[in-house]
Amino acid sequence: xxxxxxxxxxxxxxxxxxxxxxxxxxxxxxxxxxxxxxxxxxxxxxxxxxxxxxxxxxxxxxxxxxxxxxxxxxxxxxxxxxxxxxxxxxxxxxxxxxxxxxxxxxxxxxxxxxxxxxxxxxxxxxxxxxxxxxxxxxxxxxxxxxxxxxxxxxxxxxxxxxxxxxxxxxxxxxxxxxxxxxxxxxxxxxxxxxxxxxxxxxxxxxxxxxxxxxxxxxxxxxxxxxxxxxxxxxxxxx
Length: 238
Hints:
It is built from eleven helices and twelve strands. By secondary structure, it is of the alpha/beta class. It has a single domain (2-237), classed as Aldolase class I (TIM Barrel), CATH 3.20.20. The protein has an eight-stranded parallel β-barrel, surrounded by eight helices. A hairpin with a 4-residue loop joins strand 8 and strand 9. The radius of gyration is 16 Å and the shape is globular.
């Protein structure tokens, strides 16, 4: 199982939210590039970069910071936040993204994202951010009536290979991940790379997630709060 540290960006700074609520913003570093360099120093190879400004505004805002991270570290980056148009995805790839996560746009414009999948193939990750089983969009500010399973099903024929699933109720809470959800997703979609996000607080949580069979786990607040060290992640990955 891959352990994927997260860098969430607001106003150019590394932050974390609780349950996707922007009013709970907590700053951890003024320089996301230095955070990424520290990950690189500890042998981490992949990071999850979220442009929270972009998610809220509906267009990428912090692509220049991602480019600086790429130039400084050459880490594998999956990027999400505000990707809506063809030019957005092109710009994201040009600025250093190896993969992009299609979240809100995948709910609102199935045709466009299906075309992206045909063109970019496994460089597109389906972003399924859920609350009470339903998909949330616009930086988790709006809950749709789209069920998580119907959402994923709708992209199977289009060729999706990876899904990042975030349980919003767990995100930033440090109370443990939604293990039954991820177990069900892995069982239902054995052909997909399911990446869990939200709630990880200890190395034991990562052990339990690995037991579900998920492809990867995104870790954010637990690192910044010192609940999980980068040394522990390196040891886990090895």
